Amino acid sequence: MRYVKQIQELPRRALADFIAANVRTLLEDEALAALKNPYVTPQICQLIAQSHRLTGFYSVRLRLVEHRATPQAHAVKFVHYLHWPDMVRLSVDVRIAAPVRRAIDTQLLLRVDKLTLGEKIASAKRCGLALIKVFLFDRDPDVFASLLVNQRVREEDLVLIAGSERATAEKLQLLAADRKWSCRYAVRKALVLNPLTPRSVAASQLRFLTARDLHQIHRNPRTSVYLRRCIERLRPALAAMAFSLI
Predict the structure, then answer these.
(1) Which residues lie closer than 8 Å to 96 by C-beta, 6 or more apart?
(2) What is the pTM of this model?
(3) For residue range 85-110, what is the model confidence (pLDDT) as tens digits?
(4) Which partner from 14, 93, 154, 233 sits 20 to 30 angstroms from 136, CA to CA?
(5) Closest CA to 32 of 62, 53, 2, 12
């Protein structure tokens, strides 16, 4: 352990000389110590990345992907060998070079269909945009519920699902009950406009909409009779107008 700490603290030139002389015999913890050294260079990362023996260790491959000094060709190559939780974590790490994160997103999308429900639920809480777009339309409402607590979910993502024909009544209910998102005007309006939204849920949103939007919703042929009557009770003028057109 003491020797490993010394490697981690070697000066720039001493570190370069040490790796050049010992890369063929480095142990796993020694390679990791070198990669933690603040003076590590792309050349050092490349030497380690080119060692099949060292990159046989998962921890070394992972650290090479994480390190900004690793030449991108090597980092992208090692992405293919990472475990799912590490890929999800790295996909949202802004310290990772953008091309490497794109490679990670590609691998995530290729593997997402093989996940268990538990893995989807855990990933939905912290994934990036690439997986958010997939999980929005996942059939299981528990995945959507986890997605609602993800800090990277945007209002536009939820407006998309709120207005989609692929949404389920259970998802729309979850969205309408969410404290953070249910108060967003665009979400409220999308919930009202979607015929799949349970009518009690849609009706509960009406009082928050503007008179102009209520008028347009009232005139929309897709709006149910039930919602029209609810709007007319909120806006008697609309009821009078509707009656005059009979």
Answers:
(1) 65, 66, 68, 90, 104
(2) 0.84
(3) 999 999 999 999 999 999 999 999 99
(4) 93
(5) 62
The number of C-alpha atoms within 13 Å of 85 and in the hemisphere containing its C-beta is 4
CA distance 124 to 143: 6
Q: What is the DSSP string of 163-184?
A: T-TT--HHHHHHHHH-TTTTT-
- Give, in order, the Cα–Cα distances in Å from 96 to each of 109, 128, 172: 18, 13, 35
- Which amino acid, residue 129? L
Q: What SS3 class is residue 9?
A: coil
Instruction: Centre a 10 Å sphere on the Cβ of residue 118 and count the other Cβ atoms it contains.
Output: 9
Spatial CB neighbours of 220, under 8 Å, sequence gap ≥ 6: 193
Q: Are 199 and 175 in contact (CB under 8 A)?
A: no
Assess contact for 217 and 225: CB atoms under 8 A: no
What DSSP assignment string belongs to 213-243? Answer: HHHHHHH-TTS-HHHHHHHHHH-HHHHHHHH
* pLDDT tens digits, one per residue of 15-68: 999 999 999 999 999 999 999 999 999 999 999 999 999 999 999 999 999 999
Residues 6+ apart with CB under 8 A from 115: 84, 123
| Rg (alpha carbons) of the chain, rounded to whole number | 27
Give the closest residue to 132 by CA, choosing from 119, 115, 146.
Answer: 146
What count of Cα atoms within 13 Å lies in the side-chain half-sphere of residue 38?
2
